[in-house]
Amino acid sequence: MSNELGSHVVTLTTNRRQVSDHQQWERDALVALCDGNVAPAVHVNVERGQVTITGTIDEARLVEDWWEAHRDRTTAILAVCRADVVALNDMVRARRQAAGELGEEIRLDGKAFSVSGRVIFEKNQ
């Protein structure tokens, strides 16, 4: 892709997020990703419990892992397929409702929205 874009490619040269000494492994993984070495970057993230690889959503324990992490920091669960995104959103929503984190609910076009819920908008590709 960068060959096609030529001089229009933007390269990030300064890491402003992983700056502390205990985050060196994250900086190294990001450099590996930027250099196109995906496998070592994924491997170190799996070893450190930052990435979970499973065959199905049900095997992943994603929602419980997310639940443990989300109270301390901003976290995200990413999925490629829309069906997986819908399933994960439903599971997270149910977990948040069970914990009393979500307020009154309204439905728009079949989708549920609640007070204290989060909606993220991104540019379509």
Secondary structure layout plus pairing:
Blueprint: H1 2-5, H2 24-34, H3 38-47, H4 57-60, H5 62-70, H6 82-98, E1 105-108, E2 111-114
Antiparallel strand pairs: 1-2
Description:
The chain is 44% helix and 6% strand. It contains 6 helices and 2 strands, in the order H-H-H-H-H-H-E-E. It has helices spanning 2-5, 24-34, 38-47, 57-60, 62-70, 82-98, and strands at 105-108, 111-114. The protein has a two-stranded antiparallel ribbon. It is globular. The two termini are 15 Å apart.
Structural class: mainly alpha
Q: Number of helical runs?
A: 6
How many β strands by DSSP? 2
Sketch the major β-sheet: 2 strands, antiparallel
Work out the helicity level.
40-55%
- Low-pLDDT parts are none
Question: Quick summary of this structure?
Answer:
The protein is mainly α and 125 residues long.
Output the keywords.
125 residues, mainly alpha, 6 helices, globular
